[in-house]
IS256 family transposase
Amino acid sequence: MPTDSELFPDAETAAIAHMLAEDRADELTDMLVEGLYEALRILEGEITADTWH
């Protein structure tokens, strides 16, 4: 049977797989939503008025 490192080469993917296996989907969803909000805050800071057409 393959080990986690063989199935999931990076730590982030392995962590997500463990959260799903442990039925912690709500916690994972909260983390993903926070990540999306952070990405939007970063993008919002890069948009300037002259880029809108």
